[in-house]
């Protein structure tokens, strides 16, 4: 089992400068490799350049530019080239699937914030001074950097990455661990229904409120973005101190909202994992749910369009993204695996329109009279619509579990 750890680093002024130069030079390598691929395809009879060919050139690149490329780890530079190769692999996969491809783009220095080291001990050394009470990580070309290690690392460290977020620097480790001991069984099963008014409702009648972190920070974000918009668009090295301060403020607010969503997702998932042996949830296609509606052309007026509800859909999409369902479900699945719990996704169709009474089971859109109220037109059963959805999700999940076991 592989587990990731993220720790805050506390580099000195000189180490901060060296870390910034490492990101800049790896960004330059990434962009140069991308340019080579573009030129080869456009001008040399549509020739495709692969990772192996570019990796073989690294030795000559390092010898030609020892100050910028020769000072960094060879394996980390190979990881940067693999990163570009994965971007092209994803591009061709989307082309083959008929999706919007999105050709790999050049990265600005601000958008290249991570350098990977594929192996601990090759260009990087975690806990490089084990007899020192302060944990340190050593990077080639940077030195021994202090690390705020807030929890122990269990297992053997496999890979190390350095990441920049604003003015902060983090080290990200992946460690190989044995299979964890499962939690003691509770004998409880539950189904959950994701929503907007409530973050989720469970089949036992419980609700988790939606914190709406993005909406709560909207006023501050709007003010910060308005302040930033007053500055003219200039290159990074031409920005004034006030411009840079405005950029950092906007980025800091976005980071705070992201951390709040992650914290809420972790705590909610942990509570479900501790209390239940089996969890069923709706297999929502979130990417499709947040798509903008297609425009409707007006047949009577060429070039004109009919109302398509785009404004209302934009508000719904914003609420869905603010809830962070995808992040939560990813965390829930990961925690369930390490705790020995079972998590199953079920088809979400008609879960909130089906009467949960075993003697009824009537399906009709009219059963859900409002966003919150469920009233079966066949038997008269009433309940909260989200609770009804969670009960039906649990029932479908148990059927799938029994079918797997059988």
CATH topology term of the largest domain: Nucleotidyltransferase, domain 5
Given as residue ranges, the uncertain stretches (5+ residues, pLDDT < 50) are: none
CATH class type of the largest domain: Alpha Beta
Radius of gyration: 26 Å
Helix content: 40-55%
Task: State the domain count.
Answer: 2
Tell me the major beta sheet.
Answer: 7 strands, antiparallel
Class by alpha and beta content: alpha+beta
Instruction: Indicate the overall shape.
Output: globular
Tell me what the structure shows:
The protein is of the alpha+beta class. It has two domains: about 180 residues, no CATH class; about 180 residues, Nucleotidyltransferase, domain 5 (2-Layer Sandwich). Helices cover about 45% and strands about 20% of the residues. The strands form four sheets. It has a seven-stranded antiparallel beta sheet with strand order 2-6-7-1-5-4-3. A five-stranded mixed beta sheet has the order 10-9-8-11-14. It has a two-stranded antiparallel sheet with strand order 12-13. The model has no long low-confidence stretch (mean pLDDT about 90).
Topology of helices and strands:
Elements: E1 2-10, H1 13-43, H2 51-56, H3 58-64, H4 74-97, E2 114-117, E3 124-126, E4 136-139, E5 143-148, E6 156-165, E7 168-176, E8 189-194, E9 198-202, E10 207-209, H5 213-216, H6 218-229, H7 241-275, E11 278-282, H8 286-289, E12 296-297, E13 305-306, H9 310-323, H10 325-339, E14 342-346, E15 373-375, E16 382-384, H11 385-405
Parallel strand pairs: 8-11, 11-14
Antiparallel strand pairs: 1-5, 1-7, 2-6, 3-4, 4-5, 6-7, 8-9, 9-10, 12-13, 15-16
Helix pairs in contact: 1-4, 6-7, 7-10
């Amino acid at each position: 089992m592989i587990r990731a750890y993220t720790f805050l680093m506390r580099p000195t002024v000189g180490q901060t400068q060296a870390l910034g130069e490492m990101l800049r030079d790896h960004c330059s390598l990434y962009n140069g490799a991308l340019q080579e691929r573009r030129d080869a395809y456009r001008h040399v009879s549509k020739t495709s350049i692969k990772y192996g060919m570019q990796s073989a050139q690294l030795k000559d690149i390092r010898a030609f530019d020892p100050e910028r490329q020769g000072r960094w780890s060879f394996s980390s530079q190979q990881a940067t080239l693999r990163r570009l190769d994965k971007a092209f692999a994803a591009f061709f996969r989307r082309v083959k699937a008929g999706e919007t491809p999105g050709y790999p783009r050049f990265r600005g220095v601000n958008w290249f914030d991570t350098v990977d080291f594929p192996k601990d001990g090759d260009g990087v050394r975690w806990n490089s001074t084990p007899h020192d009470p302060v944990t340190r990580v050593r990077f080639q070309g940077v030195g021994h950097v202090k690390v705020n290690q807030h929890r122990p690392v269990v297992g053997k460290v496999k890979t190390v990455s350095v990441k920049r977020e604003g003015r902060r620097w983090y080290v990200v480790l992946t460690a190989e661990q044995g299979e964890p001991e499962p939690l003691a069984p509770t004998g409880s099963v539950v189904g959950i229904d994701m929503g907007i008014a409530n973050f989720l409702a469970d089949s036992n009648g419980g609700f988790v409120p939606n914190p709406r972190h993005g909406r709560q920070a909207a006023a501050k974000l709007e003010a910060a973005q308005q302040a930033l918009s007053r500055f003219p668009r200039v290159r990074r090295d031409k920005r004034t101190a006030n411009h840079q301060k405005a950029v950092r403020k906007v980025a800091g607010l976005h980071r705070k909202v992201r951390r709040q969503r992650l914290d809420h997702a972790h705590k909610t998932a942990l509570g479900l994992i501790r209390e239940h042996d089996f969890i069923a949830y709706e297999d929502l296609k979130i990417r499709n749910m947040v798509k903008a509606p297609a425009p409707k052309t007006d047949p009577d007026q060429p070039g004109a369009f009919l109302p398509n509800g785009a404004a209302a859909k934009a508000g719904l999409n914003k609420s869905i993204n603010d809830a962070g369902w995808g992040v939560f479900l990813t965390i829930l699945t990961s925690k369930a695996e390490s705790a020995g719990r079972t998590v199953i996704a079920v088809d979400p169709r008609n879960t909130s329109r089906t009467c949960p009474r075993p003697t009824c089971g009537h399906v009709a859109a009219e059963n859900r009279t409002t966003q919150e109220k469920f009233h079966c037109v066949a038997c008269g059963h009433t309940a909260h619509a989200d609770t009804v959805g969670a009960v039906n999700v649990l029932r479908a999940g148990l059927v799938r579990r029994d079918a797997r076991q059988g």
